[in-house]
Amino acid sequence: MEGRLVSPNSRTYIGSGKVAEIKSKINALVVENVIFGDELSAGRLRNLEKAFGGEVASAQMEYQLPRLTKMWTYLVRQAGGQVKGMGEKQIELVKRI
User: Fold this and answer.
1) 19-24 CB contacts, 8 Å cutoff, 24+ apart
2) Which Pfam families does this chain map to (predicted)?
3) Is residue 38 part of a domain?
4) Rounded distance between C-alpha atoms, residue 73 and residue 62, angstroms
5) Which residues is 9 bridged to in the sheet?
6) pLDDT value of position 60
7) Tens-digit pLDDT profile for the chain (97 aa)?
8) How many domains does one find in the chain?
9) Is 13 helix (H, G, I), strand (E, B) or coil?
């Protein structure tokens, strides 16, 4: 088990040696993307972005995009119990209250 982490590094998910290795390969091979097979926290993304000098955050945003599709559905017209119309928008309801 030489050089293996027992648990993920709290700052970067990978060890400092692996960060240095990836950074040198990024520079030598002109790599545009580094992909991790696990979800990274915001702090780890920020630390990796600093270490690699790239846009790690944009990949995270692309990953989250499909999960945000129904996040604001409460702002569309609600099907109310009244016969008239489609119901009122959540914004109108809040204003009325």
Assistant:
1) 19/48, 19/51, 19/52, 22/52, 23/51, 23/52, 23/53
2) GTP-bdg_N (PF13167)
3) yes
4) 20
5) 13
6) 66
7) 457 888 889 999 999 999 999 999 988 998 878 888 888 888 898 899 889 887 765 666 777 777 666 665 655 555 555 545 555 566 676 677 6
8) 1
9) strand
Q: Is residue 2 part of a domain?
A: no
What are the tokens at 36? 């991790």
The one-letter amino acid code at 72 reads W
Is 81 among the domain residues?
Answer: no
Tokens in use for 53?
């000098």
How many residues are listed for the chain in this entry?
97
> 11 with 47: CB under 8 angstroms?
yes
pLDDT of residue 56: 62
Residue 76: predicted pLDDT: 57
Q: What angle do CA 93, 94, 97 make, to 5 degrees?
A: 85
10 phi, psi to nearest 5 deg: -70, -25
Residue 46 in tokens: 């920020």
The answer to whether the pTM exceeds 0.70 is: no
